[in-house]
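Encode chain A's predicted structure.
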Amino acid sequence: MIFTEVLPRSLAALLGALLIVIFGLLYGVFSYEEIFTAISMKMLIFIMGLFIVVEILDDVGLFRFIGFSLINLTSDPRGYMMLFPMMTLFFAAIIDNIPAMLIAGSLIMAVCKELKIDPADYIIAAAIFTNIGGITLLISSIPNILVGFAFDIGFMEFANIAIPLALILAAVTLILFSTYLLPKKRSVVHVTMRYDPWSAVKDKRVFNLSVIIFVAMITLLIFQEKLGVGMEFITFGASIALLVLTRESINEIFKRVDWPTLLFLAGFLIIVSGLDRVGLFKLVATKLTSICVDDASLTAAFIGLSGIASGFVDNIPITAALIPVARSIIDQGRFSSAPLLWSLIFGANLGGTSLR
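Encoded structure for chain A:
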């Protein structure tokens, strides 16, 4: 039902979790107390904190402020083909892909309407860079968070590997864009208007406080391991600080938080735990390792499996389902863990919207 979208994915996951619990208890797969160990409360608190932080930052106008500031860097429509994708990558690196694309898309449409030019190529380029931005940081996408919490990958450990790879991929993609999408001659049409970044800001005091707290949150995540606290403590603490200091309406913020995704994750984690206990993922891992003879072939298989599957269905359940497969393979001790995990992260993110 999740894959066919007969029911909303959150409801389908909760129904599946209910059935897993009922049959798991009937057949003694797990005890009632063990059901709750399937749900990573630390991860859900981390994600909820991020959702609240992003909603408040969007409400105070931070993302549009950044967008307007970046748009003013060029006066040539041709230059926007380079600027818009990088702007989208930046947004996707610090917030989830969908809101990043919505913010970037609205800015692109506004500029193109003003210039009376076709926004299609800009939107396509931005969509591709949304996926690239999704691999940049641990907080950039749900698949990153799932893998990070499952295998204890820290914020900086993730960034040290992902940022260089994302920048290389972005550079190669921009070269392709400049070859196939940009007009061969520099446009003679120039932008005469300028956007006032502060027009996106409702209250400068609230805006400044929000920026300070967000920067503090990122800084604390960088030094999280030295501080000896969990990442969920930092993001949830930042969300509380923002709610208190900015005096944003908690009811309005909570209405906009993506609760269906949190419920979906909770339900699907129970489903995955039940299937793992009956040995399904161990069987899949055994089949994969019998086919793949070395790290390179296994990495290619995981990139293909996660990337192609994520192109057809949501990359969140694909990632959640492949995590226990990866753990089973790693437990065998025949293959290196790092290439396997990064192939899962890259495949799920880059394939995430390829066919949807």
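The first helix runs from residue 9 to 26.
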